[in-house]
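Structure ticket #2291
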Amino acid sequence: MVEKYKGEEATAQILSTFWHEYGHAGYYSFLTPDQKKFINREYRKTTRPERKDFFAEGVAATRSGFDYSKYFSKNESEWFAQSFAEWTITKKTGNQKLVPIFENLLTKIKEVFSKLFSRKSVNSLDDIYNYFLKTDKKEYVEIAQQQADVFIIDGSHRRACAEHVVKIAGGVMIVLDNSDWFPETTEVLRSSLKWIQIDFHGFGPINGYTWTTTIFINPKRHQELVYVKKLGSMCGLKQVSLEDKLC
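Resolution: structure written out below.
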């Protein structure tokens, strides 16, 4: 698979990032507790220099301007995500014992993509690449479909994507990442749709600065947004105030 993109650094970076993030998502969403324990044991058997040497020879090495091989070697989560990316793209791995987990995870991800493709079967990685990794601007922008409930505007061509979504949006929600960097794009969505705007400011992964992610909610479909579990904070104190029960 990697031969198809050999010499195309930008595309190699996209592929690496794409599968790295799905490695993270798969780890937290699809793997069993026993699989996670096994991954932890295998991670602890390696040294950081060994992990770094492996990534330095892989797809991560195409990412210029930053030593990603060092970054991907720093902890279990990054190690697993990039190991999955390297295996998916090149079929190379620093640990053959992880291959059954990679295969199982890729199968589950393909099942998710099949639903995204309106239940069309995903038979190969090219099916996924041809759908998601658009390089032509027009194809990239117009990949958004009218029947979608949630539109996420991130990556390239955000202004053009916003203008396209405005024409077709009938969904529940639009998410614009880094909206503070795109004030005119934010205004296009706000003034054109008249939807409810909610801004989230704060820190994100890796970077030492804050940014804003803006969500626009369709007032005609807001009732479809419901809690699926009890309100709570992931790292909060598990308690209920006595005052809460006095009423």
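Closing remark: The longest strand covers residues 196-203.
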